[in-house]
Amino acid sequence: MKLSTRRVAQLAVMVALLVIGAYVSIPLRPVPITFQSAFVVLTPLLFGTSAYIAVLAYLLLGLVGLPVFAEGASGLVALSGPTGGFLAGFLLASIVVGIIVEHWHWDSRWRDLVLAEGSLIFIYVPGIFWMWHVLLLRGGAAQAALVGLIPILALDVVKMAVVAALARPLRSALAEVEDG
């Protein structure tokens, strides 16, 4: 995959938005509510299969110690902590949604809504199972879902609806920039 300078710059902007989204948070335990997931899902809706590059760059920035994760966390501690599975889910969602976007050529707000809401599965499943593993919760994955998912689910559904509504006009604006 060859990326133009423009596309690299656009993906860098998405990395910056991921960092900003991590800092806009409501500090719940063990999973804070952030806007990271919105930008994680918006990225493949806008950039298709190249979206994973932005998410991977974001994760690598955190891995090397920059405080880019929620609440300023970074490093292996953040990746191996209770929310590490959600961070891995970000990468999974960006890859899967990016592939689907490139192969599902029916461009509509309904497609964007289905993909945005469906992306939560790719974020939540690794997040819940990792949290269960790390916190050694009694009651298994069901208990992890109760602890980590229920407090953030309603707001994430709303965030994904907003992302889906924004995706199409943003794609049009990006297409105009590339044409002009």
Automatic annotation (TrEMBL):
GO MF term list: biotin transmembrane transporter activity
Coiled-coil blocks: none
GO CC terms: plasma membrane
TM helices/strands, residue ranges: 6-26, 38-61, 81-101, 113-132, 144-167
Domain of life: Bacteria
Keyword Transmembrane belongs to the record: yes
Membrane topology: Multi-pass membrane protein
Compartments it resides in: Cell membrane
Swiss-Prot/TrEMBL keywords: Cell membrane, Membrane, Transmembrane, Transmembrane helix, Transport
PANTHER family noted in UniProt: BIOTIN TRANSPORTER BIOY
Family: Belongs to the BioY family.
Name this polypeptide is given: Biotin transporter
